[in-house]
Amino acid sequence: MPGNTIRRALSAFLSVTVLTLALNACSGSASDDDTVNFGYIGDYNGASLLAIAQEQGLWKEQGLTAKTKVFTNGPVQIQALGSGDLDYGYIGPGAMWLPASGKAKVIAVNTYTYADRVIAQPGIRTMKDLKGKRVGVPEGTSGDMILNIALEKAGMTTEDIQKIAMDPSTVVSAFTSGKIDGAGIFYPSIDTIRKKVPDLVEVASTKETGDAFPTAFVAGNKVSGKKNTKVIKVLQQANDWRAQHPEESVALVAAMLHVSEAQAKADASHVETFSTDDLAAKTASGEIGRSLGKLGDLFVHNKQLAENPDPADFYDGDLYRKVHAG
Question: Is residue 30 packed enough to be buried (19+ CB in 10 Å), middle (13-18) or exposed (0-12)?
């Protein structure tokens, strides 16, 4: 009798334990499948598709719940992806070396941006005038990228300036207070600076150099392909809504970021958007791959990458096209 009692008790305990584990596994799986932790930068590029997706109920259509969090730059989001604090994020071209080095996966191209500038205090007219001067820059961002491009075109290197690493908000305060002579920075931060330094000089820009590059949405390496498929679908639907409703998209961004519509519109003026048809076609033709490859060459030149990888290694263009094709 004691032996039978023990066996029955052990059997009951194991049954309850297995059931509990199964329920917990199902609960965890549902949470993992349904919740999207998404990072973004507080500008038109970074916020517009997320604002549209929320307003249009696109996450719900895919059975997802999005939790968004604002960041100051792309590299910090890549760190959050690696630690598991984020599932997805948005990066500009300057941070593309991080997915290119295997830190994340590009799942969708967003826009091409012309928002990056090297700016200088009044009286400084050219890149050569910045020789020996203090130049602030958020390292690893598109501000860093345009600074390196502009230096090279002027026959200079970072050794010719006093390069000071600082986050975007610190660049704004340091420039407006005169603590730095120049900066590699981007809109809309430049608009903020211009309010206090209206005579600032744009000594170099991606628009002038012809170096507009793609911005993109990235996924953590451990995020499932099933979730990526759903998220890409949301981004594609939001992308096409943005293309068809440019003024409304500006209004949604303004509301999301708590800025004026005039400010959001000015920010959007530095952005080239495309329909999802266009992005799928540019992926199929290899245009996006070539653009990413050109970025890779810059990153190798700047010693951010040891070698330039095949863009197909970090941009899942095949999945993007598959989702688009339905």
Answer: exposed
What is the model's pTM? 0.82
Q: Which long-range contacts (CB under 8 A, 24 or more apart) does 241-249 make?
A: 241/52, 241/56, 242/48, 242/49, 242/52, 242/273, 243/273, 243/274, 243/275, 246/273, 249/48, 249/51, 249/52
Would residue 21 count as lying in a domain? no
Whether residue 17 lies inside any domain: the answer is no
User: What single DSSP character describes residue 315?
Assistant: B
d(CA 178, CA 237): 44
Residue 116 CA to residue 142 CA, distance in Å, equals 7
Domain membership of residue 27 (yes or no) is: no
d(CA 198, CA 200): 6
How far is 254 from 126, CA to CA, in rounded Å?
Answer: 34
Q: Are 247 and 268 in contact (CB under 8 A)?
A: no
Classify residue 101: in a domain, yes or no: yes
pLDDT per position as a tens digit, 39-61 = 999 999 999 999 999 999 999 99
Q: What is the pLDDT of residues 149-177, one digit of tens each?
A: 999 999 999 999 999 999 999 999 999 99
Residue type, 154: A
DSSP H or E stretch at residue 69: strand 65-71
